[in-house]
Structures are given as structure tokens and as C-alpha cells.
Design a protein that fits this description.
A hairpin with a 2-residue loop joins strand 1 (about 20) and strand 2. The protein has 17 helices and 4 strands. It has helices at about 25-55, 60-80, 85-95, 95-115, 120-145, 155-185, 185-210, 225-245, 250-275, 275-300, 305-315, 325-350, 355-380, 390-405, 405-415, 420-450, 460-490; strands spanning about 20, 20-25, 315, 385. It is mostly helical and about 500 residues long. Strands 1-2 form a two-stranded antiparallel ribbon.
Length: about 500
């Protein structure tokens, strides 16, 4: 391998044809991801409040909220943690296309299992979804990266467009699944609607997969039905383990820490084995940015848990509280095109912030959103509810922070990783997000869990927690801002 690492590796272009300046397959992947995200966010908007009311309703409100927050955090953590395994399976055994179809089918089955009003069966359904998501989520993002040459200036914009597909599904889903179907007919029927969305996503991908050409096909010698059956059997064997980890939050924490340590060892060893010091240093930079990603999402992912309970109990709004779950994707849809245009303009002027500094801005922005909410709580008279505009502004600030990190991060992974390890690296990116979601569940349990005796959380409890999150974002984001020149050197020209 040349010293230039991934930048010099052979690139095989996708089938010819463009739409709005981007390869045609991008728009197919956009559509498939829309429906998968419709499924995920439709269920996510309901998960914590449904679990608290249905399975822990016999407990004091604060304890019910805390238990539901831990279940929510465990599920969202495992959804992302299995991405590292799914990426490896796609890279070496199944291929990206078949991984996505099989993963989507498993997600749909798991969603339909959530209709069973029994806690253990509910956890089994979540476990099946987790197994399927590991095969789906990292691999569709990897194929977006495969559409562009490593130095193609359209690459970041392409990922931002793809990110809009994610958020279009995320915007529509809470409205349909939670605020309309769930609120009117029962939350379990919201899960049903989300499952139907996943079925549509699998159908769209299967029918239009020919647009991808060579991209994502099975590795040589892995064609035929046998690899699919082997992976399906492995997924079935994985379900009991996922069920156990969903039931035992503390055990899940230890597993995630172990996987994060494995990730570090894997990429350091891979860089050393390659004999390419540039690739080794790029992996070092990538791991540092994985850590920033973890810390950011630990703050951001309060949205579906503590902020959802906060909206339900303490916010004065003229609409159903679950509609706040559509605020972030709505702001993404409005702002993503502006950010997609902003980065090239700033680059042309030599003022485009480096990737590490964009991550630093994201961390500080996430903290600032909580500061605004804490100040709003302090300004709210005793016995009154917080005006809904402040929560909406918090989501707006968090969205702008997200646009400085998430689409940029996806693109960064595909550029820093060696070609043969892009799927593994994308899985590592989602593993860092998994750790973040686990930490987010612990934070939410404190914020929404109230006092030691399980009483309902107070505005004061939320204000104290949100203030602490502000300081966390400020200090860590400031640290990454100061360390940005060092991380840039480790990246060796990747922008």
C-alpha cells in the first residue's frame, strides 16, 4: 500500500448516470434508508413512554421512568453495537446487498413481535430488531461511500443528502406512528405501522438493487444460499444473548466497554500489520473522533428518553408531546441543504473548519442546548409548565450541532479507513454511538427518575442535570478544539 493510504486505492465507479449531480444509486439508497428510519424513529418515539406505562406502571412514577430509560438506552445501544459485527459479516462473507435485505426482514419480524403485551416477549422482539439492525445499518452507509472516489468533492454533500433521507423518515414517523396512530388507537399499533414501514424499505431495496451494479455484491466464492442460511442461523443464536443484555443493564455496560477496547486493539494492530505508518496514524485519529462521537450522542440522545418524559410532564404545548420527536428531523430537512452548501463555500475561502473542530463545535453546541433549557426552567414560575418554544429551540441548537458531526463523521470513516476495512470501521463508528446510547440511558434515568424513593422527577432535578450536561459539553468540546491541530496531523490530508 502506498503512503497515501486509502486515497490511492483502486476505485471502481458505479453504473453511469446522475440525478442532480450525484450517482443514481444514491437516491435508491436514500429511499431505502427513509423507510428503515421511519421504522426506527416511529418505534423510538413510543418506546420509553410505552415501556414505563405498560410494564412498569405498578411502580412509582420516577422509578417507572428510570426503568424505561434504562430499557431504552440498552436497546438503542445494542442497535448500534451490533453494527461492528454486521459490517464484518458484509465485508468478508455475505456482501452488503444481501446483508441489508436479510437485516431489514429481521427488523420487520421483531417490530411485529412488539405487539405482544408481555415484557419478556417484548424484549425478545427488541432482540430480533437488534440482530437485524446490525446487518442493515452500517452497510447501507458503507455503500454510499462506495459511490464516490476518495477525493471526490461531492462526497460530503452526498452523505448530507443521504442524511436527509434518514431524517425525512424520522420526521414523518413520530407523526404517523405516535401522534396519530399511537395516541388514538394505542401505542402498540404505532409499532405495527413502524413494522410496515420496514417491509416497504426491504421491498424498495430489493426491486432497485440492480442500480448498484457491482457495489455490495457477495465476495468471490460466497455466492448462493448457504452464506445467507449460515448468517440467519447466527442471528437466531444471537437473540437469547441480546435478550439477556436487555434484561441486565449492568452486564451490557461491561460488554460495551469490552467491545470498545477490542475496537482499539483491532485497528491499532491492523495499522501495525499493514506496515503503513500513515494508515496507522489515520486509525489513531479515527479512534479519537470515535470518542468525540460517543460523548456527543450521550448528550444528544436524551431526546427519546428524558426529554420525552420532560415534554410529557413539564412542557406547555398545544399539541401531543410526541410531536417534539419530529422537531430534530424537521430542522435537519430545513438546514441540511444549507450546511451541504456551506462547507464547499467555506472551503473555497480557506475557512472551512477541520473535521476535529467541527466535532468540537458539535459538542459545545449540544451542551449549549441544555443550558438554554436549564435557564428556561429557572425562569418558569413555581407550579407552571415550561413554554414549548424553549424545548423547540433546544432541538434546533442540537440539530445544528448534529450537522457539524454526524454526516461529516460518516464521510470521515470511509476516507480514513483502509478500503478492505471500511465496513468494520463503519461498524466501529456505530459502536461508539452504541456506547453513547448506553450512557444516555444512565443520564436519563437520573434526570427523569426523580428521587431515591421513586417519586416523579421535579423541574429542579431536570435543571440540575441539564446544567451538568452543559458543562460537560463545554469542557470536552473545548478540549477537542485545542487538540484539533494534532488530530489533523494524524489524518494526513484527509478533509
Amino acid at each position: 500500500m502506498a503512503a497515501g493510504g486509502t486515497a490511492t486505492q483502486e476505485f471502481i465507479p458505479p453504473p453511469p448516470g446522475e440525478i442532480l449531480g450525484h450517482p443514481k444509486p444514491l437516491w435508491m439508497l436514500f429511499s431505502a434508508e427513509f423507510w428503515e428510519r421511519f421504522c426506527y424513529y416511529g418505534m423510538r418515539a413510543l418506546l420509553a413512554v410505552y415501556v414505563a406505562a405498560t410494564f412498569f406502571g405498578h411502580l412509582p412514577e420516577g422509578e417507572a421512568n428510570a426503568q424505561a430509560s434504562l430499557t431504552y438506552g440498552g436497546y438503542t445501544a445494542l442497535v448500534y453495537a451490533t453494527g461492528i459485527l454486521g459490517g464484518y459479516i458484509a465485508d468478508t462473507y455475505l456482501g452488503y446487498q444481501r446483508s441489508i435485505i436479510l437485516g431489514g426482514a429481521l427488523i420487520a419480524v421483531g417490530m411485529f413481535m412488539l405487539l405482544i403485551p408481555d415484557l419478556q416477549w417484548f424484549l425478545v422482539g427488541l432482540a430480533v430488531i437488534v440482530a437485524g439492525n446490525g446487518l442493515f445499518k452500517p452497510n447501507i452507509s458503507t455503500m454510499v461511500g462506495a459511490l464516490y472516489a476518495p477525493q471526490d468533492s461531492r462526497r460530503d454533500s452526498g452523505f448530507t443528502i443521504f442524511y436527509m433521507g434518514i431524517n425525512a423518515g424520522a420526521f414523518v414517523a413520530p407523526i404517523i406512528c405516535a401522534s396519530v396512530i399511537g395516541a388514538r388507537f394505542g401505542y402498540q399499533y404505532g409499532f405495527l405501522a413502524a413494522g410496515v414501514g420496514m417491509v416497504l424499505g426491504v421491498v424498495v431495496f430489493h426491486l432497485l438493487a440492480g442500480m448498484l451494479g457491482h457495489i455490495g455484491r457477495a465476495p468471490p466464492g460466497r455466492e448462493g444460499a448457504k452464506p445467507v442460511l449460515v448468517v440467519l442461523g447466527g442471528a437466531a443464536a444471537m437473540v437469547p444473548l441480546m435478550w439477556f443484555l436487555l434484561s441486565k443493564s449492568e452486564a451490557l455496560g461491561y460488554v460495551l466497554i469490552g467491545l470498545m477496547l477490542f475496537l482499539v486493539v483491532y485497528f491499532v494492530a491492523s495499522g501495525i500489520r499493514s506496515g503503513d505508518h500513515v494508515q496507522l496514524q489515520r486509525y489513531g485519529a479515527m479512534l479519537l473522533l470515535f470518542l468525540a462521537n460517543c460523548l456527543f450522542w450521550a448528550l444528544f440522545e436524551q431526546a427519546g428518553s428524558s426529554l420525552n418524559f420532560f415534554a410529557r410532564d413539564f412542557v406547555d404545548a398545544p399539541f401531543h408531546f410526541t410531536l417534539f420527536q419530529s422537531a430534530n428531523p424537521l430542522f435537519i430537512l430545513l438546514l441540511a441543504p444549507l450546511f451541504a452548501m456551506l462547507w464547499p463555500v467555506l472551503d473555497g475561502k480557506g475557512r472551512n473548519p477541520s473535521i476535529p473542530r467541527k466535532f468540537a463545535i458539535a459538542l459545545i453546541g449540544a451542551g449549549f442546548g441544555f443550558l438554554l433549557l436549564a435557564l428556561a426552567i429557572e425562569a418558569t414560575p413555581d407550579g407552571a409548565r415550561v413554554i414549548w418554544v424553549f424545548l423547540a429551540l433546544t432541538y434546533l441548537i442540537h440539530t445544528m450541532a448534529e450537522l457539524c458531526l454526524s454526516p461529516i463523521g460518516l464521510s470521515m470513516v470511509t476516507k480514513l479507513a483502509a478500503k478492505h476495512e471500511v465496513g468494520m470501521a463503519m461498524g466501529g463508528w456505530f459502536l461508539s454511538t452504541a456506547m453513547a446510547n448506553y450512557l444516555a440511558g444512565l443520564i436519563a434515568a437520573v434526570a427523569s427518575g426523580g428521587g431515591a424513593h421513586g417519586e416523579a422527577s421535579s423541574l429542579g432535578q431536570y435543571a440540575a442535570t441539564f446544567t451538568q450536561l452543559w458543562w460537560l459539553g463545554l469542557v470536552i468540546g473545548g478540549g477537542y478544539f485545542l487538540c484539533a491541530p494534532l488530530i489533523n496531523r494524524l489524518m494526513h490530508g484527509v478533509k
